[in-house]
């Protein structure tokens, strides 16, 4: 059951994503390729040009351990 607290945390994450220019989605791995699935169903193919983090801010490697979990991506600054 979703609680008010869960909704507040989710809304705060969405606002932070907008203000800090990152994207939140679910990690999907298909045929060895990693994608970020957005709420609207769109898939973004992930590659080395992205910094990929768990929601806690910890950078992660793309593997099945995080498949189905919410992650954060940012464009790496050149």
* C-alpha termini separation: 43 Å
User: What is the β-strand count?
Assistant: 5
What class, by secondary structure content?
alpha+beta
The percentage of residues in β strands lies in 25-35%
The pLDDT mean sits at: 87
Q: What string gives the helices and strands in order?
A: HEEEEE
Spans where pLDDT lies below 50 across 5 or more residues: none
| Biggest β-sheet: strands ordered side by side in the sheet | 3-2-1-5-4
* Tally of alpha and pi helices: 1
Largest sheet: 5 strands, antiparallel
Using only C-alpha atoms, the radius of gyration works out to 13 Å
Shape summary: globular
How is this structure best described in words?
The protein is α+β, with helices and mostly antiparallel strands and 78 residues long. The protein contains one helix and five strands. Strand 1 and strand 2 (33-37) form a beta hairpin. The protein is globular and about 35 Å long. The chain starts with a helix and ends with a strand.
TL;DR of this structure?
The protein contains one helix and five strands. With 78 residues, it is α+β, with helices and mostly antiparallel strands. The chain has a five-stranded antiparallel beta sheet with strand order 3-2-1-5-4.
Write the layout of secondary structure elements.
Elements: H1 4-20, E1 23-30, E2 33-37, E3 43-45, E4 50-54, E5 70-75
Antiparallel strand pairs: 1-2, 1-5, 2-3, 4-5
Which tags fit this structure?
alpha+beta; single chain; globular; five-stranded antiparallel β-sheet; 78 residues
